[in-house]
Amino acid sequence: MAERGTVDVLVNNAGLQFISPIEDFPVEKWDLVNDVILKGTFLLTKHALPAMQKQKKGRIINISSAHGRIPDAYKSAYCAAKFGQVGFTKVTALENALKGITCNTIEPGPVRTELIEKQLPKLAEQDGTTVEEALNHHILGKQWIKRFTRAFRNWCYSCILSLRRCRSHHRRRNRRCRRDLIIPIYPL
């Protein structure tokens, strides 16, 4: 913030997963998942808002998950964090709507990633099923489209939400956009 002085778009897109039955869930893993997803969203938003409020405009896009509306077994921390992220988005939107700042959530379906590939054998073991059955029950079964989404599409949704304002800015000012996009990336 000190270097640039302004933030026009903030995309909170961090996540990690740990799966376990609630009674066996390690507290330190619960804290880690919630710190990265929910506390990370809170802290980045908290520090970006003053600049956005000062310039009377800004966009905040929180990438949640389908698990922000549909829970799944063995994912208590992840689901709690993603549900919390959705609630936090709504509060942020309410508090800042009259200040020219929008806050939205994108809840993508599952993307085939290393994160999902690593959890499938464990889910199958916990359920006493095959990996394919675990995939259909835990990952695809509760999704509306019953297939993986593409990460690129999720980026497109973010760009659409953030660039609509940019396009109108270009038309009014007839100049190239120098807007910054903050994308927090955490190693998994």
Structure in words:
It is a single chain. By secondary structure, this protein is α/β, with parallel strands linked by helices. It has a domain at 9-109: 3-Layer(aba) Sandwich (Rossmann fold). Helix content is 52%, strand content 10%. It has helices spanning 27-55, 76-96, 114-127, 131-140, 151-173, and strands at residues 9-12, 58-63, 101-106, 181-182. It has a four-stranded parallel sheet, sandwiched between helices. The longest helix is centred in the N-terminal third of the chain and has 29 residues, at 27-55. It is elongated and about 55 Å long. Residues 165-188 have low confidence and may be disordered.
Give keywords.
single chain; 188 residues; alpha/beta; Rossmann fold; 4-stranded parallel sheet; 5 helices; 10% strand
What is the CATH topology descriptor of the domain at 9-109? Rossmann fold
Average pLDDT, rounded to a whole number, is: 79
Q: Could you tell me the number of beta strands?
A: 4
Helix and strand element order: EHEHEHHHE
Q: Which outline best applies?
A: elongated
Count of helical stretches? 5
Major sheet details? 4 strands, parallel
What percentage of the residues does DSSP assign to strands (E)?
Answer: 5-15%
CATH architecture of the domain at 9-109: 3-Layer(aba) Sandwich
Termini gap:
25 Å
- Classified in CATH, the superfamily of the domain at 9-109 is NAD(P)-binding Rossmann-like Domain
CATH class category name of the domain at 9-109: Alpha Beta
Unreliable segments of 5+ consecutive residues: 165-188
Q: Which class of secondary structure composition applies to the elements?
A: alpha/beta
Percent helix = 40-55%
Widest sheet, order of strands: 3-2-1-4
Radius of gyration: 18 Å
